[in-house]
Predict the structure.
Amino acid sequence: MKKVNLAIVVGLLSGLVWVAPSAAAFPEKPVRLIVPYPAGGGGDLMARAMAERLGAELGQQIVIENRGGAGGALAAETVARAAPDGYTVLFGTVGTQSINPAIYPNLRYDSLKDFAPISLTHIAPRVLMVRADLPAKNIVELMSLAKKQPGVLSYGSAGSGSTGHLSGALFESLAGVDMLHVPYRGSAPVVIDLLAGRLDMTFDSLTAYESHIKSGKVRVLGVTTKARMSILPQTPTLSEAGLVGFDVSNWLGVLAPARTPKDVLATLHAALGRAMATPALKQQLIALGIEPTFSSQEEFSSLIRAELPKWAELVKKSGATAD
């Protein structure tokens, strides 16, 4: 038998170092952002601007998937049932998380238990806008016109249970008028019908209407929040115009499915913070009347929980129901 050179064997074995496989770093593929609005509307535009910066921070593409309808419930349900791996997240709203539980008796998701909030990202006041040829130049004249034509004046919203719908219902309640609510699958078709004269008014964000306001095709009558907007300093609030206590705004943020790993949530949270702090994105949102913001995961969760009873009371007081 030939003698084996021990030094050679040891040398060969020393090069065969076994390395245990490690988990791939998140994200290793594109992330889906489910948006509860159709393409082209104000909410969709906000989501796309944010997604572009978030994708740059994560080093992966953010793929927008629009799922409008049912006050955002379809989009929220999609994310609630998605794999909790961080690759499917929701651009959630006050409607999907805090209003829908009061509007829809058979909601197929739990806005608290089925989600892991990541951060609040946008605060968007609502603005009352009318078609250019509507014979009402201010809120008082609008209320007078609505009283003379009960059930005739129409207002469009992004869907039953949306903040636009609830704003209109509250307006009817406080002004003592009866109007026709026309729900759409998001804001984009509302813009089209308002410009075409098929709608009389809408309670929506400025995002998709800015150019039409400047051109005179749409007229702004009031702001739905307690305070005036800095971008519209001459426009009164509805509360100032006589509808005391009128205060409605829309907030938006990013949420993942419940049980998403903490390290994945932390990665998404950090990247989102860097994205929302980008000067160009902040300036873009502020110019559209939107307040860019960022919060801790705990702060966002607390906001959703605190808003639930507030909106439940408002829904009951206004009489708003899912159409």
Remarks:
- The CA atoms of residues 218 and 254 lie 31 Å apart.
- The radius of gyration is 24 Å.
- The chain has a mean pLDDT of 89.
